[in-house]
Amino acid sequence: MAPRPARYPQQDSSAGRYIYCITDFLHQLTEGRAGEFYEMLSARYAHQYKTTYKHQQPTGVVFTLSCRTRMIWTYDKTEEVVFWGCVSVLLAALLHVLGLCSWWTVFPTTWLLSGGASLILSSLTVSSSGKAVLVTGCDTGFGNSFALILDRLGFRVFAGCLHAGGEGANHLRREGSSRLHVLQMDVTNQEQLDKAAQEVKHLLPEGEVLWSLVNNAGLSAFGEVEWVPLNTYRKVAEVNVFGVISVTKTFLPLLRRARGRVVNMSSVAGTIGRGVMSPYNLTKFAIEGFSDCLRQEMMAWGVSVILVEPSNFSAATNINAQQWISEQGDQMWGSMSEEVRADYGKDYFDTLVKFAKTQANSGEKDMTSVLHAMTEAVTKRYPRVRYHAFDCYYFFKQKAVIHLPEWLSDLLYITRPPLRQLSQQKTTAQTKLD
């Protein structure tokens, strides 16, 4: 398809380009060349980055990242298109009942225009020029990889690390450009946060702004409620909740002046409760509520607040390392009262710890879907409030748990092996106790 530089000038306003796109789409559709139009649209608006590099995490996970911001089809986009399809059905039915238009005329036209408009608007990006992004938790996992992606996209990056002299921080220094700055940042230490804020102000050149804050630092823990010591709940909440709040409050003045955005890393665990994961679950539910409140408050300042909700990426991030699980298991068993130990039994406890270790290497090993969601949250001109980075299983599980009666969703998802076996062991232990 030949380019049309005269009709698609780079300096056109967003509204002008949008009108051109819709007009040309209808024209190409009538000629049966919608596929060629999509290719043109991707090339024109996606600003594809061809840089592809093999990235090795400090944890040893190797995967290939493609630094580009072109539109990739996701479950979020599917939901959006289906939503506008439902709206179009209702509108077409109403106009048909009123005798104003034919249903077969209104429905496809409305769906095409509304669905196409939503996809076009969601593909528009902001320029990285003059913008800086602060990412916490860059020692390993999502944060380490995402800092390098932002660097390659042209942003100035402030990578907050718990250990600024550690392997992950040194990896960023080696792989990143001069725009990537590693900061010592323990999100639970306000003194370090204040010092990091001063460093950010000092390192920001004249004319650059802090465009985005990505709260990525996190900690996980497992165990049944009766097992987990209170200090474990406090430790996880200190990082996952109060750490997020502290970092946000520290850098929010800079973000407000830039009319930028806050990106909070939540989880599917922030929408779906799961037994033996209460220390982690409660913090992610808290982040969901905190983000919704902050989003409403920041509307007046033009600051966007965005949530990214990954599913299970334990294998990719090593957030639940087997050594960490063993240490938690020893701590839990040692802190239990004799009564609780007797009620649950050592066999049941050991079975669940063993199950937790097998789950440590479960889930997705490729972080691309999460990194893409994080990239869209930072770079899109009209970002979504929530980005869901999970597969088909978690897509339907989340919908089922939220919308179905609890007895039905529990039957579908809670009583599957090996949790069913663990439940039977617990019932047997209770019967003996009675």
List segments where confidence is low: pLDDT < 50 over at least 5 consecutive residues. 1-23, 25-54, 59-64
Cα gyration radius (Å): 25 Å
CATH superfamily of one domain: NAD(P)-binding Rossmann-like Domain
Distance between the termini: 77 Å
> How does the overall form come out from the CA principal axes?
flat
Return the structural class: alpha/beta
Give the CATH architecture of one domain: 3-Layer(aba) Sandwich
Number of strands: 9
Largest sheet: 7 strands, parallel
Description of the molecule:
The chain starts with 13 loop residues before the first helix and ends with a helix. The protein is flat and about 75 Å long. With 434 residues, the chain is an alpha/beta fold. The strands form 2 sheets. The chain has a 7-stranded parallel beta sheet with strand order 5-4-3-6-7-8-9, sandwiched between helices. A two-stranded antiparallel sheet has the order 1-2. Among the domains are: 45 residues, no CATH class; 234 residues, NAD(P)-binding Rossmann-like Domain (Rossmann fold), CATH 3.40.50. The longest helix has 29 residues.
